[in-house]
Amino acid sequence: MMKEEETRNINIVNSEPLSPLKKWSAKWSLWPCHFVTSCCGVELAHAYGCGYDGERLGSLAMGISRQANTIIVEGTITRKMARPLRVVWEQMPDPKFVNVIGACGERGGIFWNSYHITHPHRIVPVDFFVPGCPVTPEALLRGIRALQDKIEGDDRSTISFRTVDLSGAGGKKNRVPESPKIIAPTPLVKPDIPSGVRWEEGEQIVEMLKKVLGELVISITVTDKDRIAIKTTPENIREVAARLSAEMKIDHVKSVNVIDVPHERKFIIEYTAGSYEKELMPVLFTIFADLRSGKDEISFPSLADIWMSADYTERELQDFFGVKFEGNPGREGNFLLAPDTPKFPLRRSFKLEEERYVLEDDKPFAPVIDPPTEFDIPLPPGLEEEVGAAGEYLLLVGPHHTGSGHLRWIMRLKGDTLSEVIPDPGYVHRSMEKLAENRLYIQNIPLFERLCIVDPFNVNLGYVRTIEKALKIDVPERATYIRTLMAELSRIDAFTYDAGIFSLFMGHSTGFMYLWAIREMLLEMITAMTGSRCSPSFIIPGGIRRDISDEVLNLVEKLPTAVQGRLRKFEDIFVNNPVLISRVKGVGVLSREDAIKAGIVGPFLRASGVEYDIRKIEPYEAYGDLDWEVIGADDGDCLVRFLVRLEEMQESLNIVKQCVEKLKSMERGGVMSEAILGEYSEAKDDIRGSFYRVFGNLVLPRGEWSTVTEAARGTLFFSILSDGDSNVPYRVRTISPSWYNLRGIIEASRGEKMADFWAVYGSFGYFPPEADR
Amino acid sequence: MMGTIEALINLMMADQVAIPLLDPILNILYGIPLLGYLLAFILWKPIFAGLVCPGFATLGVILMLFPWIERKLVARMQWRVGPREILPQFGGIIQLLADSLRFLFQEVIVHRDAKQPYFVQFPVLSFIPALLPLLFIPAGVIVAVKSAYGVQIILALVCLFPFFILGLGWASNSRFAYIGTVREAFMYFAYEIPFIIAVLAMIVLYGTSDPVAIAGMSVPGIILNPLAALTFFIAAAMATSRLPFEIAEADQELAAGPHVEYSGILFGLIYVMCYEKMYILSGLMTILFLGGGSGPEIAILGDLSGVVYFMIKTVIVMTLLAALRGVYPRYRLDQGLKIGWSSMLIMGTLALVISLAEVLIL
Amino acid sequence: MKKIVAPDYGLGETVKSHAAAIKVAIKEAILPQTVTSHYPGERRRMPDCFRGYLRFDPEMCISCFQCSFICPANAIGMREAPDNRYYPTIDYGKCIFCYFCLDSCPGGALKPTKVHDVAYNDVDEMLTPTCDMIDMPEIIREDERYVEYKIDEHDLSLERVKGLDDLAVELPELEKISMVSVCVAPENCLSCRVCEEVCESGAITSALDGDEIRMTIDTTTCNGCGLCVKECSMQVLRLVRREI
Question: Across residues B28-52, what is the average pLDDT?
């Protein structure tokens, strides 16, 4: 059927009369419809931004399916997104063409065995496939060129190989080795195993906790520096939470986690909470309880009314594990997952396809995934009636919409006023947590990096720091400076991306383009350092993959001053533009209390007056040795949220400058910790040749290891539960800044005008792949 | 019979567009039977105005070129290149030809929920208010219909425009189109009154509403009453949905509002319609404020000299309107309305007062 | 904490900032700081460390499977060549260009290129068998120039150089860490012969010694691929440095 549809479209251009004109016009007017489905959208923006400018080829990026004639499928099509893809394709007038970019859209890329992805070529007829993860803008334009050639009548792949004859004398037939994964059959899973680190304040806090909680808890353990595990029971957990919230000022939840332990017939339900009170800021309180899993209906009391920040995360876990959180205000039906996803995919009884290391027949290997048959995305039941009764109307924005990003916003509107925005996320949910349980620790580095490819180093660092914390290895000084440098470049990367999208949301394409010029400069440097524009996977446990040459450092040194000229112009034309100021000032205000309650993080929280920056509170890498300031504000509206990040960019540039200076004064080489390299100590300057030998069998000590990292958009939470025997994690929990901020968007846009939603949305720098994980 | 034709020819010959440059060729051509008549017909001023300039042919060229100019200009401001590869030697000047041909050959989708047949009729019908005003706009001394009330008639026709957009949005029967339509209606009321007052101020100032007479004034209106010019320009930006007042279309919010459901050639019509409106309003602005086709006489072009000046000025005004896209973000609906009903209304009234003062004092 | 205060515009500032915005626009319209590189007519020059398509040198390959094991996307499948050795194939429909394989390859058999702009019209074509990975792939190239980003203290400018950019990259030769497999506890050996079966280089041999099967490792032929160490169920084998 797909083939037929593909030929139908190309036949329309070839049909008489006036076929040459039809071909010519279609060739030079391939307007791609805005169908950003995941990370490759960033590179699409670059291909149509000022660095490459796809409009040169007559290809004008167009938002509306009815007027476009090309879909560029950017990466992963999840089960949920498969429906919009087909619907948008049907909406487009013939003749229409489809290009798929990015490995995820071809055979799944790094998400090849995810339970939530589909293959776009089974959903719509695809003309060209462009490899890459993400593809480079040049590759994307090559896809457009190939499509142009196809319309002209020359349909072919743009690469050809010279086949070399490999036949030689046959040797003996060899046995195929087994999978490198070692998985313990009945692992010991406990979130409160002490790591043996002395932490004196911790003891005092434990004393205080004991006084406050008394009989309600089973045990209180200091597991690691800044982490206290409190074991309680499902019956008592609400009381524990209420007392912690009232008496210890523990005011937000960083993570909710469910750990399935089938061989002990239990679930461990875990809340990781924290406080924005100055002295408790760095401490993570993990409150957990065991839940018998034998019964059919598994339910657990919800803490969403005590800590609003736990709300969405609980709903997500309901989808994942089928654990009902009693009292959660969520509506019926799946929150994150597509309706036809296999039930409770994160339970351990749900098995993913295993890797194959040997190609048996010459066929590429990928599981067969049938596309969904229903193309309707249901609304929460009863919503329409409820809205009608309230005299309001519904507006469904997204997931295919110029201003929606990859999720659906269900807007309840009364006139022009938003009475509520209901998020419908999960269109980019790629099941990273489940995949991480099936891969080697080291293989998860690129996996988690796909959380946010505009902030790659910070995500990378977050995961690697967790491993390093567990292994208790120190990173050589040079490597910490390089990592800090990279983390700050990454922060600028994410800011420029978000600010560009913000200016687009405000209707200001010039602001977008100006930032894209700065981004091109930045990506040039990241490429020079690591070899990849957006997905470097450069930070590894114990250091970095290879040292950075002085030549590259000289290049990076110029960044802080080189961007200023263009940044000034951006400020003049966009930031200080009176039209913008009037649009965003005083809009979407979150007071300090509301901000903490909603659980927003990072610069957005600081813009509401909370002085919380993990880089200052528990300085990791080289942040403690550098001279920089935390940026904040009091107003908490869209304007200062944006301005805080703009100022943070200057601060980041300042850190970059200091790092480069320091690095230049340092001796080269030695960027890997020798403790982790073991006998491959030659690899300390460059890991090439020893990567698998060093990391292939990495096993973390038994226990749960949690870290928070200040990513560009705020707190990035990683928690790895290791059973101590397997070389794959038992459970990895990650909560990304965008997921925290989702609630902030909803709360801040309540009661505002409809058009203000985009001001709020843009000011929060929400990045759906990061949120959906 | 022959007499009537003779009389007609004489009538036409009496009012021919004078082009000294082409005179030798024209004189030969006039001598050829039939072709001569045809030429006389085309060069007859009222017909020339309607068919060639500022009418049909010029409009066509503007529609094919101006979006390209806009895209190139904005691309330049944005450190990009804009359309190019289609004809690299000329900077991709024929880009719009490819786009419009593509729209022409593409399927037109009339979705199930659309209100038929209005969904198809409105884009076509909207050409009436788009084309008629051209008859009253003089390019230099060339005008199709001379009327003492030309300015008012143009104004009235231009004001008809939003109704067709409302029609489009209504017939689309989609929620985004609906919201866009409502916004368009709101904005219509916000800009229409200051717009009319600004024009009124100029009519008061000039003491006539004949476009030809106004264009012939010695001092351009922008010097006599800059405030009226500013009000008119902002109102024109609102009327043509240019940023920062692109509120009804608001790509990121409403996915092009009223046009969201249109595809193929119907969208092509709507797409060019916006530019037609811009052309007319810029033409009107040229006449009212920039002295129409006046300028240092280029003797060799004769009557065309005025046409050239008129076109240059009009395109400059259009370019300024287009350039706004590169400079401004978008206002919110209530802010747009506030600007219309307060600042612009005050500015318009002040402009009227200035005009009255000038008339009374001078 | 450094506090940001939102600007408050009076009429004067409003007019001034309108003027500033318009000034930038006019300036850029006249003398733009364009940064566009005209792909496909020209291409950006990527640094040598750029991660593109991979090349493969069978001479250097020790069939250790490490590239396949490390591949986070499971894009590398080993394929038995006519000479009965296992060589990698890459499915570019999955490859994420992380170069973990290249960094893992102990023999330096995988080599980088700067080829990255490719489009396939069939998803099944994206599997690149070993025999195609040995020579540089040929791609459609329409470029006549390459663009280099010149970043100085003040700004970014594009330098266009006539000529084709060479997409092949030669890395400095890999300083190999030569390992060899030894049996640390022969008394625990079950003589299951898995190590012999998995050994590509034929260094492990078994011989009947009375009733027992005795395994021997020839350290001169052992290429240190480590498969035997990995497969040994009794974990009696270790990889150690080759004594020079």
Answer: 78
